[in-house]
Amino acid sequence: MKITRFLGLAALAGVLASGASASAQTAVKIGYALPNSSHYGAGANAFAAELERAAPGRFKVDQFPASALGGEREMIESVQLGTLDLVITSSGPVGNFVPDVAVTDIPFLFRDTAHARAVLDGPIGQDLLAKFPAKGLVALAWGEQGFRHLTNGRRTVQAPDDLKGLKLRTMENQVHMLAFRTLGANPTPMAWPEVVQGLQQGTIDGQENPISVIVSAKLSEVQKHLTLTRHVFSPALVIVSKDRFDGLKDADKAAFRAAGKAAAAAMRKFVDDVETKGVETLKGQGMQVVTAVDTAKFQAVLAPAYAEYAKRFGQAKIDAIRNYKP
Ligand code: PAF
Question: Would 15 be classed as within a structural domain?
Answer without folding.
Answer: no
